[in-house]
Amino acid sequence: MNSSINNNDVELSSAILSAKLPSMDYLLLENHEEKDMFRFILENHQDPVFLIKIEEDNSKCSFIDFNKFFCDSLGYSRNELFQLKHLSIYSPESLSIVEKNIIKHQSENSLIWEAVILKKDKQRVSFEIKSFVFKNERHNLLFAFLHDISSYKGSIQELQNKKSLLKRSESIGRMGCWEYDTNKNKLWVSDGARAIFGLDDGEFSLKDLNTIFYPDYSLNADKIFENLNSNGGKYEVEFKIHRKNDGTLVVIRSQTEYDSRLGKYYGIIQDITLQRKVEDELIKAREKAEESDRLKAAFVSNMSHEIRTPMNGIVGFAHLLTDTDLDITTREEYKEGIHLCCDQLLSRVNDMLDIAKSESGQVEINTSRVYINDLLKEIFEKFSTIALKKNLGFRINPGNIVHEQTLKTDKSKLSKIIINLIDNAFRFTHSGSVEFGYIVLDSGIEFYVKDTGIGISQFQHEIIFQPFCQADIQISQEYGGTGLGLTIAKTYVEMLGGTIWLESQPGIGTTFFFTLPDVRSEKDSVKTSSVREKKSLPKTSLIVEDIEMNYIYLKALLEPLGFKVLWAKDGNEAIEMALSNNDINLVLMDIRMPNTDGYKATRIIKEKRPDLPIIAQSACALIDEKMKAIESGCNGYVAKPIYKDEFKTVLSTFFEI
Q1: Half-sphere exposure of 411 (CA within 13 A, CB side)
Q2: Which residue of 140, 146, 269, 397 has the fewest CB atoms within a 10 Å radius of its CB?
């Protein structure tokens, strides 16, 4: 630090203190000329000055004399200062500094140091102190010149605070600044810029900067300056670097200006890596959402086609059957056409229900020991006619010819997975063959479905399993289908604890694989229930149904089985009839009806007639609907559309059919 104490006065004071004075206390000096010289310094120096006598015990050092400016600076009177010990005027943190310098004066005549002195009102004042020691035979005297540096210290502290604020602001904003002096060829970077670039505390040149630019990026420091000069002294650019200390890829936005008068470039940089990442993710999300919307729109259009096509067949054949002149063969063909269209329509609806149930968590897993070869044979027979019509080879390759090869899993879902994969194979295969089978693994079974169809390109292997998606919209239009079969297959495989994947080459064919674990326990438990006594009494059934056509259909199923049929059109009527007619020994309860629904009607009836069998029948096939029906007191459940054979199986639980 450059001392603010007047150098001429210091030299004069030093000369005086260096003079050979008599060996006596300053106040007892007999040499009036020398005494006057000391007095002259004390009275005429414009900064505070004091003189102390150094004792062996520093705490006992006291003031010998001081000037007016010293009194004024501290706010004490002369008498008050004479009552104080020298060390008592310093702040606690400065005491060690004072004592250290007094000790150093044993070997050094002059020192410059800093200390904080407490004024009478306890206000703190920072001083730069230049001290000189005068020694004689009797005493050691310390003569000190003080200069108030509080303003300077405050400026330094304010500068440090601003520097700290800048550093924190740079850290929060992930920013930094730099300056390049063309005259000195010197580059300065702030702490924030060093953190962004990954630099240590050493010097850093433009040449070093060029080494961290992203290799695939055509920009370098020289190019930036060229562009800067050609853009009127201002230039904004975005570039990438590999951070010097760890190699991390960083995206930087830079703004630069050039001061031609000083020959300096000034720049601000900002790390926008996170911002760019978020923006890229948002763009991908938007593109994915747009693609999803496009696929859903295509799906809706396709589903309209897939539903209206079988509906057209059903309506058309139904009208044709009204012609009384039809021969038996033609009539049977029309009836078969209606059956096929119904199966096709129901398949489309079931696909949509399966997706809805899986997405809402409404899929129920029912495991049992499945005889795999029997299941595959059933599926083989189901598709044999299709293979013949398309003139395709169709083979089954059981992994074990033993009839008893089993797997504990959900049979209906395993069947659905294989059927969907085979249906997909036939749909996209024009020539060649379709083959399916399995191999036995230590941990379970690996199934496969192989075709010689059009194949699937590599980048479509993932999206092929997404809902509402086929590998190509044009394929959907050409080959038909809902685009849900593979999604359902993948969902069911994963629900059963397995994995699914494919191998495919466009124009050659595709093989889908999936594995299922064999869920074994130490003892496969079999659920048992008490054997219900089947009734052979006269059978009277109450059909609770608000739709007349549904009532007519159920009546047509029941009457050939020997049932007398009654009809209630809503829940209230059902309650009244069931509780007033003890001949009714079966209730077919619709769930969703006006006035009182099937749940409430069942609970009321069961309170009075707990042994009366009530079978819920509903068009809603979700698990929660079935569970609510059972919880309300129903003894069974059938989902619409109701098939004759399935219906008879349910009835046989309660009656001898």
Answers
A1: 12
A2: 397
